[in-house]
Specification:
The structure is a single chain. This protein is mostly helical. The chain has one domain. Helix 2 packs antiparallel against helix 3. The longest helix has about 60 residues. It is flat.
Length: about 150
C-alpha cells in the first residue's frame, strides 16, 4: 500500500466517522443457542483437572525420561565398546535429551503451578465478592427496617 492510498483511506474513515450518527461495535454475532455470557467459562473443577493432569504428566515424564536416558547411555557404551561409532552419537543424543526433558518438565510444572495459583486467586475473589454483597444486603435490610417495611 502506497502512502497516498494510506492517506486516502484515513481520510475516508474520518469522513465516515464525522458524518455518521451511529455507533459501530466490533463483535461476533449473537449465539443462536442463547448463551449471553459468551463461551469463555471455566469452573474450579476444570482448573483442578487441568492442573492435576499437568502434574501427573510431569511426574510420569520425569520418571520415564530418566529410564530412556539411562538405557540410551548403556546402549551407547555397549556400542562403543564393540567398536561402533554410532555409540558416540547415541551418547551425544542422550546428553542433549536431558536439556529437552528439563524444558518439558519446566513447562508442565509451570502449568500446574499457575493453575493452582489461579484456583486460589479466584477463590479469594469469590470470597471478597460474597463478603461485599452480603454487606450490601445487610445495609439494605437496615434501610428497609428503618423505613418500616
Amino acid at each position: 500500500m502506497g502512502w497516498d492510498e494510506w492517506e486516502q483511506l484515513k481520510g475516508d474513515a474520518l469522513a465516515r466517522q464525522q458524518s455518521s450518527t451511529h455507533m459501530q461495535l466490533n463483535s461476533i454475532p449473537a449465539d443462536p443457542g442463547g448463551n449471553p455470557q459468551g463461551d469463555l467459562r471455566v469452573s474450579q473443577n476444570d482448573l483442578a483437572a487441568v492442573g492435576d493432569a499437568a502434574y501427573e504428566l510431569h511426574q510420569a515424564f520425569q520418571h520415564d525420561s530418566d529410564l530412556a536416558r539411562m538405557s540410551s547411555i548403556k546402549a551407547g557404551d555397549g556400542l562403543k565398546s564393540e567398536g561402533y561409532e554410532i555409540g558416540s552419537a547415541l551418547d551425544h543424543v542422550a546428553e542433549h535429551w536431558v536439556d529437552q526433558v528439563q524444558s518439558l518438565l519446566d513447562a508442565t510444572a509451570h502449568i500446574s503451578n499457575h493453575l493452582d495459583y489461579t484456583k486460589g486467586a479466584h477463590a479469594g475473589d469469590e470470597a471478597y465478592i460474597a463478603g461485599t454483597l452480603s454487606s450490601i444486603a445487610t445495609l439494605d435490610k437496615g434501610f428497609d427496617e428503618r423505613k418500616g417495611s
